[in-house]
Amino acid sequence: MSSKLPVNNSQTITDFLNLHHNQMAEDNSADSYKFAFEDEAFLARRETLGLRFQLELLKPEILLHERGIEHTITVFGSTRFVSSEVAQEMRRVAKTPQAVAQADRALLHSKYYDSAREFGTLVANYNATQKEDRNKLHIATGGGPGIMEAVNRGAFEAGDKSIGFNISLPKEQYPNPYLTAGLSFRFHYFALRKMHFMLRARAILAYPGGFGSFDELFEVLTLMQTKKAIRFPVILVGQDFWCEVINFKKMLEHGVIEQADMDLIHFVETAEEAWAVINKWYQLA
Prior knowledge:
CATH class of the largest domain: Alpha Beta
Low-confidence stretches: none
InterPro entries: LOG_fam, LOG_family_nucleotidases
Order of helices and strands: HHHHHEHHEHEEHEHEHHHEH
Oligomer: single chain
Radius of gyration: 22 Å
EC number: 3.2.2.4
Protein name: AMP nucleosidase
Pfam families: Lysine_decarbox
Enzyme class: hydrolase
């Protein structure tokens, strides 16, 4: 009986690029003669995985440095939230019970989109008072829709730099339109994207979200808990949501976390409260 164990448990870059085996073989001189750095099929081989990791780390690192980006506030949250204007229009045109329910849920959650947009503006307004790049904090997100779009939008509309670290997905996630030219990046590997979320982060702001937001949030908390990263503000917007979907109290009662771990987290309800936490932590002018 043959084993059904998979050869590889990930979507490889060759799968993503739809490269076939005969393209990888490079049987003719036209392929083998290419410069290695110009040869897409060669760079997509299993053996060059480490090189791709290095490149995904290095490219944004160089470009951000060249643009004077030293400090960021990384913002997580649902891709599914829309602005109050969009939600109200959804409600206006809703005809079926299902559409009405969807619109009502969009209206309920639109407060988070509007809050994130306001937060981006608050950060941009602070940056406008600073002359030196080393004193500025820039908005960084996953570059997609929803909360990411909202906070990028707030910063962009206020005339500030706005950064997006996008990711290749089976259903491709396109960059939102509020990213600064030259500061919109695309990753294939979540691990490298997460590194860039953290490398310059001076605070993490998390709005309600799904698996992706939870994954990113707990990665940050674990790094701080294990002292792999210095402590900085981790701010959760909407205490009712977070404490309903994650029973922190029960985790404490079961002893799987300690009060010191909970002390990493700041619960807030508004954009102004979130900015106040960061302002106080760093004693910003």
